[in-house]
Fold these 4 entries.
Entry 1:
Amino acid sequence: QVQLVESGGGLVQAGGSLRLSCAASEKIFGLNAMGWYRQAPGKQRELAAVVTSDGSTNYADSVKGRFTISRDNAKNTVLLQMNSLKPEDTAVYYCKAEAVSTLSTRNYWGQGTQVTVSS
């Protein structure tokens, strides 16, 4: 069973930076998009950033210009560089990997890593 292992969360002051990392425990066949989602207390999980297998990226409007997503296809890893952090970025951040085959699409999720931004 493939597992996504996240690291890099923590507590930071507003204006600071953090880098999140997510690595798959084994090769994911048919790996397509990889992304980061976040869920703040009392809110629904939302997309923060996603990168496709060809390197195309998409960001939530709230993080554009501050967050940068990147991936290493050979290592099945995805990074999220977060700069100029704001208190409203506080959330649990989840890594997601999408695997596509001719028959189905399967999504893998990490366990989540807490990011707390103090004002």
Entry 2:
Amino acid sequence: QVQLVESGGGLVQPGGSLRITCAASGSIFSIDAMGWYRQAPGKQREFVARITSVDSTYFADSVKGRFAISRDNAKNTVYLQMNSLKPEDTAVYYCNAIIQTIGTMIHLNYWGQGTQVTVSS
């Protein structure tokens, strides 16, 4: 029905930058908020950033001023630009989107499979 596919993860040195992407596909009627969460080894999944359908953005305190989120509605895609990366940003980053599928009035929460971001020298 609906798939979220992340890409762009990898290994980056401290202080470096990385952009990860999430593309939604399938029987999509509309997409509300899109966002990113992350989960480091041995820790719970935590909120990173969100962008609404009217481009309001929200960030976790730990990434404010370093990360930026944007979306391309024509491509059903959300981006996370990560700058000034720190080792503590190392985690699997998961895309999240609230999507109304074609033929329904229901808005459901969807998750991607995750992409690994490792910040290390």
Entry 3:
Amino acid sequence: EVQLVESGGGLVQAGGSLRLSCATSGFNFDDYAIGWFRQAPGKEREGVSCTITSEGYTYIADSVKGRFTMSSDNAKNTVYLEMNSVKPEDTAVYYCAVSPAACGTPDTYWGQGTQVTVSS
């Protein structure tokens, strides 16, 4: 059974930093697409970052490029999202997601989400 548990969200001032973690289990870490998504109030869920290790593919949204970095510790089956120079518009619920195909496809497994609030 695929399990995803996010942590690390909270309240941060604009310009500050935060690191989100996603502890995973139940699948082969190297064979899945792994990503971070976010959903702000009243808005659709959007992709933040995605990586497919087996294909050497990495995606980072233009809105966070240069500020957010996705990384992983394969030994711990944990994925991270390092958020720097955060802005109020980064306020959202952040979700970790994995898929045997590609990020965001219908067969995606989702974590429960962690709230990030950026104050101005």
Entry 4:
Amino acid sequence: QVQLVESGGGLVQPGGSLRLSCAASGSIFSRRTMGWYRQAPGKQRELVASITSSGSTNYADSVKGRFTISRDNAKNTVYLQMNSLKPEDTAVYYCNARPVKYADIWYAESWGQGTQVTVSS
């Protein structure tokens, strides 16, 4: 089971930027699709962005052009650069590691504990 630890959340004014980081334990990080999800109060958790082991990315329509997901396999870390933040981006952001099979072993899905992002003036 991989351990995921997020950091970088906080309070920012509309139009500002934040960079979230997610540090992962384990030796097969580079082979896993990683994602960032968010959950606002009273709403369902939603996918924000994901990045495959080969570096292909996918974004929610609401963040396209503003957010960028990236990964550093040497550091076992995935990032979410968030620019032009809006009040509606306020949520708890969670890091996710998708399930993967490697060397005949299944590695289960994992979630981080979440980091709060608040966009407010």
